[in-house]
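Handoff note, outgoing to incoming analyst
You'll be picking up this chain. Sequence as last confirmed:
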Amino acid sequence: MFLNVPEGAPILTAAAMRAAEERAIAAGSSVAALMERAGTGVAEWVHRLAAGSEVLILCGPGNNGGDGYVAARVLASRGVPVRVAALGEPGTEVAAAARAAWSGAVEAFPQPLSDTGAYSGVFVDAAFGTGLNRSLSEEISDVIEQLVRLSRLAITVDLPSGVDSDTGADNNLFLEASFDVTLALGALKPAHVLQPTARHCGAVRLIDIGLDLPHAPVRTLAQRGITIPQPWSHKYSRGMVAVVSGPMHGASELAARSAYRAGAGYVKLLTGGLPNPPHAIVRQRWSAEALDDKRIGAVVIGPGLGRDDRAREKLDAALASERRLVIDGDALHLLDLAVLKDRAAPVVLTPHASEFDALFGVGAGSKIERAQEAAARSGAVVVFKGADTVIAAPDGWANVAAMGSPWLSVAGTGDVLAGAIAAMLAQGVWDPLRAASDGVWLHGQAARMLDRCFLADELADALPQAYERAR
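Most recent structure output, in case you need it:
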């Protein structure tokens, strides 16, 4: 399953959303006006998607429930058959006003919904939104799960009820139910892009409620123009990548092949192994002096490197060089983070979850927060890999790739990513955050095109096709 979220969209925590709403109110808006915009936006989407079906809206006691009451009123005014069920009386003044403006019946929850096995309309979850930090009761959870599973279409307002907005942690008792559509109010939240909650969201659509959003440092990954050759380009201007090999030659071969397929003009494999196709990859016996070549735009070290003294010597030589580095795989287990602070040339670290924990420790906070802290601590760009890959820079800026394919969970795909990122660095993308993000984007697009059950070799060979989708 590929997550469907807007590209380049800001991702705001609950606190950042509250601050944005407070700025809107200070500028002359009101909580009621924001709720009216939110509920009307929800109604517009539901009206479009319901296609004449009955709509059942479950309203909670907070402002998320208030959005649901507004949506019900607007839908009814457009002739849509609407039922409203409530978890209790509104707990805020503005939500109470929204309920009072709804002229239809309000059913109690959950008793009248005990026969939901026969329900075939559109279910809208407006029970709990941003800010909930506790688990749902088993009674509420069971009924919501049943409605999500059996309704013709399941839509949730802002967030699936029971998820933690900021961390992506799941407070629901129903772990398998997934909504078809999530209508995010004002901005995306971390839970929309982080696992395990992102998989509950389905297609995420943004509703503009009139907030003046700041230049949010965290955004969804967007492709912003990958470098392509110009008429005057040559192999060195397109970038030279050097890949340091180790005992597992296949991994470094994959990284080298990927660097070429991602657009590098010259790829050198520093190895003690025998030559293998493709013969365009230049094989040179490893030496620390080989890294002195100033034409090298980026060095990949780690894929298949091993973890012995010989591997450590190679890593030390790479760190001592003036080259840009992509550090992956085995090299992450040998790395001393203190050394990175003294490097002038940029470094990109590409750990998966267990490598991240080994390097930075098991910490608290969301995956975004952990990646940001790791980048600040190391001085490197950190690509925290997974289905929800986070690319973070030391200054706190980060991109989240929420399009990850579960079929990337196969040996060698990380080596392909390391080569792709190195190609971007070597081609002259001097901002390492952008270079890493472009590599992740290209890698993800190639996976989408292959769809399923592919080898890492095939992934590398699909990178040129992914360029067709680049702007």
